[in-house]
């Protein structure tokens, strides 16, 4: 074995040209794998960072009431690694008049401040470090221009009171509310927070600091947790809740909350989550790309190793004759690969890292819209280095093993004969043909086409699929057919390189098409949206001004009252019976809000209250007379459908009937939609027309198995007046969805104009913290920014893959032409002119250049069909997004590179001395 190892080292020193070619191929391979693994790891790490930035670094929350006395059990729980605590609200009074009379603030521990997103909302100043330091909403400083950081406020603290009862600190304002002072506290303002509070709440929001020791046993606290190991979060959090005495709700679940997006980044899914093909799109895309990269480089580097082994055929035959086993010969070839790849690895890894840095620097330069978090930081830790390292070593070993294994199988005498003959042994019929034609070769060109059959490879390609007319065309086709084995590696590597690039483009373009189609549909359904929450009933003048804005083709201004309907098993529709086995079948899934009590079923219901003009327009679109619904407050339009959770997809919702319901039937409702609801008001509604459409697309996104009733807004507000305060306040929130008319063509300036008019009206009646206003123009700007970032990634990787594929083709063709010097010298010796030689090479180049496109077409079709299926995109929908220009351009580039390689080789062949070439047929 020592001899084999020494031979490998000396062989590398003697064959510097071939070793250099292999080193270049290994460097390119390591660079691309390093870049690819680093890019994937950076994208994953950035997604984790964004989830922590916006949502916080926590795994689970004890969402029910927790107290200071529970902390010892929580902190000592075996799998809990960190505890983030937020204290109860504290109210301080700052004024006796105005809309905002109080400061409401919550203290938080050091671990909370370090782990949760509130620290990123500090616009100016610093985090609080003592319980007397306060960071306060920017609204306070806007309303108090004289206030500045460092000011000290000594304020009375206590409770908000209404009708002799303590109010929640975050409740809306009520006439007759008073303040009961329980003490005095001094605050020092140390920071300004980027938060706003609805004007319905008469307070400014703030946060302060608290130590763990200051928490009393009876203090109400909110607890966020991190677990170690993280993968046990979905099992450990319910167990912890049980250990501290939590009670299950009506669905048999504890009131808990999970940071699901962060957990999903670590591939930790809820136990009850059903499998979906959509979950495989991104992982499958990266897996396919990684495998294609490895396959391409195996073939590219295998070609270089095959040339190297051909140079050393006699040496390996000699080693075999003196006792080297096939395994030792194989080990020598693999040792050569490892010796070459190990020095290249650090440089390739570093080059890939450098390329990643440049790539994400360009992305950050175009990623200013819609990203409040810091720029993307390229990361290159062990999760990126280790896969790149292992894949590089695997690729190098496989590349050397393939030709070495073929050589190791041969007998020693066959190896030596192969070297002496200059090529692989041919079949007997080829030998016979050489004997028959050997004497005639010198007359070939003078005999013209009749004597073409006497050329050594003249008949080898009669079955070749690509045929050209004339002697040169026949010669070109026969030449490729005769050397199909020597060209096989180059052609396959070129095909895989072409397939890798097209697969990469297809995967990203199909994903873009799927997302764009979904976004486009959503944008077509509503151009402008507004959500208002200020705790007051909207003024009629506000609605009148909204309705007077010209250019709006369809509007839905509505409120929503959540309640529940009690139904029996026989009320289930035929769809529910057939698809789910009735209401009991739905409940058995333990995933939906439907619940069974005393033989009856509680079904979640949404009462949608449409503004008067919007209700009339909605009825007009459905061909329904609206007047009975205004005159009878117990009459409602019923949308008796829900999305089928099994059959529906992102793009193609499938609806199924809910209840076996008839027009005129009376339904019993209760505001007690969930067990924790305090109110118990019940009422009856009579089913009017059973409609098959809702006022706006946003209402279709209701929870599964939710019944929807549509009424005039006034009637919904009258019903909510008898409900609990919480339920009534929720009915005061207003939502607006607007479609801009498309007469004369819909344009962005038209949408911007109408959006500006609507926002002016909303801002006149409501404060800045009372509403959220968006339109499709803002959404498009964010989407275009994101697309530009992705396009940079796609363009970069496309160019990189193209360079690698084309360089491998160039190397393969030039190397093959160098090996064929003797053949072309013989042809020139019998009269082949330079022009004919150039035509011969041109035809070979065209044939070879078109093969990648033709051979890869079946694989492209299969790949595209699979991803179109996963992305729910039809071929007709995909065509506008298909990268046809890039693929055709790359095909043309392949032809140019192939022809360029043949042209460069042809120039050398034309100037080469015939006698020298015939005598020397080495590399």
From TrEMBL:
Ranges annotated as spanning the membrane: 21-44, 280-301, 337-356, 376-400, 489-508, 790-813, 853-870, 882-905
Compositional bias of kind Basic residues: 426-435
GO CC annotation, single: plasma membrane protein complex
Gene Ontology biological process: lipoprotein localization to outer membrane
UniProt keyword Metal-binding, yes or no: no
Keyword Membrane: yes
Highest rank taxon of the organism: Bacteria
Annotated stretches, region: Disordered: 419-440
Subcellular location: Cell membrane
Any single Pfam family the record assigns to this protein: FtsX
Keywords: Cell membrane, Membrane, Transmembrane, Transmembrane helix
Membrane topology term: Multi-pass membrane protein
All copies of domain ABC3 transporter permease C-terminal, residue ranges: 288-401, 796-910
Family note: Belongs to the ABC-4 integral membrane protein family. LolC/E subfamily.
Protein name according to UniProt: ABC transporter permease
Origin species: Schaedlerella arabinosiphila
């Amino acid at each position: 074995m020592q001899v084999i190892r020494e031979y490998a080292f000396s062989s590398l020193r003697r064959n510097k040209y071939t070793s250099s070619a292999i080193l270049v191929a290994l460097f390119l391979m390591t660079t691309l794998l390093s870049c690819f693994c680093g890019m994937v790891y950076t994208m994953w790490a950035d997604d984790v960072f964004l989830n922590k930035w916006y949502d916080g670094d926590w795994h689970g929350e004890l969402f029910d009431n927790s107290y200071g006395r529970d902390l010892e059990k929580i902190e000592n729980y075996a799998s809990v690694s960190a505890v983030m605590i937020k204290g109860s609200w504290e109210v301080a009074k700052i004024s006796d008049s105005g809309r905002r009379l109080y400061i409401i603030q919550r203290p938080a521990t050091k671990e909370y401040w370090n782990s949760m997103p509130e620290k990123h909302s500090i616009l100016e100043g610093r985090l609080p470090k003592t319980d007397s330091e306060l960071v306060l909403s920017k609204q306070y400083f806007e309303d108090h221009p004289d206030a500045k950081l460092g000011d000290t406020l000594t304020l009375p603290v206590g409770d908000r009171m209404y009708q002799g009862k303590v109010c929640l600190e975050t409740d809306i304002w009520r006439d007759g509310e008073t303040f009961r002072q329980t003490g005095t506290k001094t605050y020092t303002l140390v920071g300004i927070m980027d938060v706003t509070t609805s004007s319905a709440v008469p307070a400014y929001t703030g946060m302060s600091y608290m130590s763990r020791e200051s928490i009393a046993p009876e203090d109400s606290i909110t607890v966020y947790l991190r677990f170690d190991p993280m993968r046990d979060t979905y099992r450990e959090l319910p167990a912890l809740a049980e250990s501290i005495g939590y009670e299950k709700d009506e669905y048999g679940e504890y009131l808990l909350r999970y940071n699901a997006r962060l957990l999903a980044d670590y591939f930790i899914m809820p136990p009850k989550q059903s499998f979906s093909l959509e979950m495989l799109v991104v992982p499958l895309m990266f897996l396919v790309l990684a495998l294609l990269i490895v396959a391409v480089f195996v073939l590219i580097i295998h070609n270089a190793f095959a040339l190297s082994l051909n140079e050393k055929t006699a040496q390996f035959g000699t080693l075999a004759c003196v006792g080297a086993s096939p395994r030792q010969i194989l080990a020598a070839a693999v040792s050569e690969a490892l010796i070459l790849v190990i020095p290249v690895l650090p440089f390739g890894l570093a080059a890939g890292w450098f390329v990643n840095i440049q790539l994400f620097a360009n992305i950050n330069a175009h990623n200013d819209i819609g990203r409040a978090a810091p720029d993307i930081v390229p990361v290159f830790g062990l999760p990126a280095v280790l896969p790149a390292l292992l894949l590089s070593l695997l690729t190098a070993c496989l590349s050397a093993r393939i030709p070495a294994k073929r050589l190791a199988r041969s007998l020693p005498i066959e190896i030596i004969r192969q070297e002496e003959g200059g090529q692989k042994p041919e079949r007997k019929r080829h030998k016979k043909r050489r004997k028959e034609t050997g004497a005639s070769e010198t007359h070939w060109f003078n005999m013209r086409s009749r004597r073409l059959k006497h050329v050594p490879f003249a008949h080898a390609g009669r079955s070749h699929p690509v045929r050209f007319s004339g002697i040169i065309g026949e010669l070109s086709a026969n030449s490729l057919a005769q050397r199909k084995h020597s060209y096989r590696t180059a052609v396959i590597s070129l095909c895989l390189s072409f397939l890798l690039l097209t697969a990469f483009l297809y995967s990203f373009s199909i994903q873009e098409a799927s997302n764009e189609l979904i976004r486009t549909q959503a944008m077509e359904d509503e151009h402008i949206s507004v959500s208002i929450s200020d705790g007051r009933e909207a003024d009629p003048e506000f609605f009148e001004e909204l309705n007077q804005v010209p250019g709006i083709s369809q509007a839905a201004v509505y409120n929503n009252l959540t309640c529940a309907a009690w139904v029996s098993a026989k009320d289930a529709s035929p769809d529910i019976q057939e698809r789910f086995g009735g209401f009991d079948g739905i409940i058995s899934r333990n995933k939906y809000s439907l619940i069974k009590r005393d033989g009856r079923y509680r079904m979640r219901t949404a009462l949608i209250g449409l503004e008067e003009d919007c209700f009339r327009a909605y009825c007009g679109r459905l061909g329904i007379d609206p007047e009975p619904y205004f005159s009878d407050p117990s009459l409602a339009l019923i949308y008796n459908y829900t999305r089928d959770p099994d059959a529906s997809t992102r793009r193609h919702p499938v609806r199924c009937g809910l209840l076996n319901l008839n027009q005129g039937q009376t339904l019993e409702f209760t505001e007690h939609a969930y067990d924790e609801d305090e109110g118990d008001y019940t009422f009856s509604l009579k089913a009017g027309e059973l409609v098959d459409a809702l006022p706006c697309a946003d209402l279709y996104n209701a929870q599964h198995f939710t019944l929807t009733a549509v009424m005039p807004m006034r009637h919904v507000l009258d019903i909510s007046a008898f409900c609990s305060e919480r339920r009534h306040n929720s009915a005061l929130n207003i939502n607006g969805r607007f479609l801009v008319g498309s007469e004369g063509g819909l344009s962005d300036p038209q949408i911007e104009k109408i959006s500006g008019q609507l926002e002016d009206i909303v801002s006149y009646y409501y404060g800045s913290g009372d509403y959220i206003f968006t339109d499709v123009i803002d959404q498009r700007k964010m989407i275009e920014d994101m697309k530009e970032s992705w396009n940079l990634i796609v363009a970069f990787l496309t160019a990189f893959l193209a360079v690698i594929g084309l360089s491998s083709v160039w190397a393969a063709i030039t190397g093959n032409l160098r090996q064929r010097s003797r053949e072309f010298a013989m042809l020139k010796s019998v009269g082949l002119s330079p022009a004919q030689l150039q035509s011969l090479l041109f035809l070979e180049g065209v044939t070879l250049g078109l093969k990648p496109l033709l051979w890869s077409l079946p694989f492209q079709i299969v790949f595209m069909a699979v991803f179109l299926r996963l992305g729910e995109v039809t071929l007709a929908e995909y065509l506008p997004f298909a990268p046809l220009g890039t693929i055709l351009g790359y095909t043309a580039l392949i032809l140019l590179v192939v022809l360029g390689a043949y042209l460069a080789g042809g120039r050398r062949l034309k100037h080469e001395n015939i006698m020298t070439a015939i005598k020397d047929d080495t590399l």
